[in-house]
Amino acid sequence: MFRSIRTAVVTALCIGFSAHFNPAAAQDRRVPSSPAELRLSYAPIVQRVQPAVVNVYAAKVVQNRNPLLDDPIFRRFFGVPGQQPEQMQRSLGSGVIVDASGLVVTNVHVIEGADQVKVSLSDKREFEAEILLKDTRTDLAVLRLKDTKEKFPTLDFTNSDELLVGDVVLAIGNPFGVGQTVTHGIISALARTQVGITDYQFFIQTDAAINPGNSGGALVDMAGKLAGINTAIYSRSGGSQGIGFAIPANMVRVVVASAKSGGKAVKRPWLGARLQAVTPEIAESLGLRSPTGALVASVVSNGPAAKAGLKSSDLITGIDGQTVDDPNAFDYRFATRPLGGSAQIDVQRSGKPLKLTVALETAPDTGRNELVVTARSPFQGAKVSTITPAVADELHLDADTEGVVITDLGGDSAAANVGFQKGDIILAVNNQKISRTGDLEKAAGERPRIWRITLVRGGQQINVTLGG
């Protein structure tokens, strides 16, 4: 099964290799030609990059809750104790220093929910760190070391689009907490899009040994540059089985740039169109030799795609000269383009090729009005947002979706205990239409005897009735 490197299960593996062969770039690579070359060492690369790879320790305080407290008979006869005992939960991962001022990139799942984060350098010094930015869509987080003015060793980014299947790479991290460890292997595949780990499905696959604790560690090329951030493995046992995944450096670069600019969220280009995969049946109907590309299902009026002339049923086959095999590949390519410029998109329309120029701009986000519901109600503890184009893009909703969406839930909140989920769209409460977060906040404060709630989950409308 798939596991993040902290052993959380993720979805399925796409079998087979996807490599875009570049003859010109391949001429620089060659196999060893003599026994002397086989005795060559990776030590100079390791010595140069190892100081920039760190260990990340995260801790959070949780309450030990006795399951008997959920039994109403037990509570009736024995009462409810006032203060539950607390316990410190700790997680371990790795990170990479990407700026000399002390910026560290790691995985979100390493520091998720942490009350305290510490970073240990290769020379054993420890620093407390603050979380500058968390981007759950990529599972990347950026930390800053506290109370320090020194210059730290860093890793430079490589252009991950130039990597080839067969290139030798090194994986550096802290597996199982044994200490900094280096393993080597090759890039087994590129553009893995059916892994199911993050929103942006476009991973480097490697057979370099990666294990729990390696999350957030460095995948390094033979120039000593950062090729990717190790994030997940395919494993039936929890240990390495030769199939690991890394987030490409070009995506990491975008997240780090947002943190450097002081942003609390990553700003990415918005296409303003919904794409779907090309099935064999669709390919046959379009007269395609193979089911590749990204089919335009709908276009948002006045969005960048509409202004560029993109239409429903267009087939996107490339962007800025790079082939697009499916919607996930397009999403990654488009998301790593710099804001403010434009991208050239290759399109097939009614069998004829077209080139369209799309402006790289962010989705409108005015009127989000995000808040946490505090009134005693089934919604208490839920973070909600009015659906804007930016929110719809983040949550993969149709751009014309209206209402209020749950964007986050407190772990032990009333909303979580009732059964609400992130992504639920609240349409009505007690026959009152919910269009903005203010509407929900008002409805939550009324405290009726019966709650009648209409919501949409996974495209299905659900009617719920709860006691007050």
Task: Kindly describe this structure.
It is found in: Periplasm. The chain is built from twelve helices and 27 strands. By secondary structure, it is of the alpha+beta class. Strands 21, 22, 23, 24, 25, 26 and 27 form a seven-stranded antiparallel sheet that branches. The longest helix is centred in the middle third of the chain and has 12 residues, at 249-260. The two termini are 42 Å apart. 40% of the residues are buried.
Compact description:
With 468 residues, the protein is α+β, with helices and mostly antiparallel strands.
Spell out the key features of this protein.
27 strands; single chain; alpha+beta; 468 residues; globular; seven-stranded antiparallel β-sheet
SSE blueprint:
Blueprint: E1 2-4, E2 9-10, H1 23-26, H2 35-38, H3 43-49, E3 53-63, H4 72-78, E4 86-99, E5 103-107, H5 108-111, E6 116-120, E7 126-135, E8 140-145, E9 168-173, E10 181-192, E11 203-206, E12 218-220, E13 226-234, E14 244-248, H6 249-260, E15 273-277, H7 280-286, E16 294-299, H8 304-308, E17 315-319, E18 322-323, H9 327-335, E19 342-349, E20 352-359, E21 371-372, E22 382-386, H10 389-394, E23 404-409, H11 414-418, E24 425-429, E25 432-433, H12 437-444, E26 450-457, E27 460-467
Antiparallel strand pairs: 1-2, 1-13, 3-4, 3-6, 4-5, 5-8, 6-7, 7-8, 9-10, 9-12, 10-11, 11-14, 12-13, 13-14, 15-16, 16-17, 17-18, 17-19, 19-20, 21-22, 22-23, 23-24, 24-25, 24-26, 26-27
